[in-house]
Amino acid sequence: MARRLTNQFKHRITIQQQTEEQSENGFLSQEWQDRHHLWAAIKTLRGREYYEAATTQNENTVRFVVRYTAEITPDMRIQYKGRTFEILSVINDDECNVTMTIVAKEVM
């Protein structure tokens, strides 16, 4: 099974986290910093998932399947081929700490 999973992880994604820094003049600046570079399988929504997403205005919702990484949270975002995705949920697949599914919506 491990070999089959390895063949699916062919898309390179970057997980980013927003940071805040206070400048010398007291202003807060926010920027996104790279936290993780991961190989992912990308799954588009089909059937019932697609229709449920469309009813909530999330037409560009995608599932990214990656190897388990405990530090990924919904307040982060994904960069993939110049596109930005807001993370909606992070799911530990089967609670096995082997793979996880990140459901994300493309930011337009």
CATH topology: Thrombin, subunit H
User: Strand-residue fraction?
Assistant: over 45%
Looking across the biggest beta sheet, what order are the strands in? 1-2-3-6-5-4
- CATH first level: which class? Mainly Beta
CATH architecture assignment? Beta Barrel
| Overall structural domain count | 1
The structure class reads mainly beta
Count all strands and give the number.
6
- As residue ranges, the low-confidence spans are none
**Overall radius of gyration:** 16 Å
Protein name: Bacteriophage head-tail adaptor
InterPro entries: Phage_SPP1_head-tail_adaptor, SSP1_head-tail_sf
Pfam families: Phage_HCP
What's the topology here?
Blueprint (H helix, E strand, L loop, with lengths): L1 H7 L2 E12 L5 E17 L2 H9 L5 E7 L9 E4 L2 E10 L6 E8 L2
Antiparallel strand pairs: 1-2, 1-4, 2-3, 3-6, 4-5, 5-6
InterPro entries: Phage_SPP1_head-tail_adaptor, SSP1_head-tail_sf
Pfam family, one: Phage_HCP
Protein name: Bacteriophage head-tail adaptor
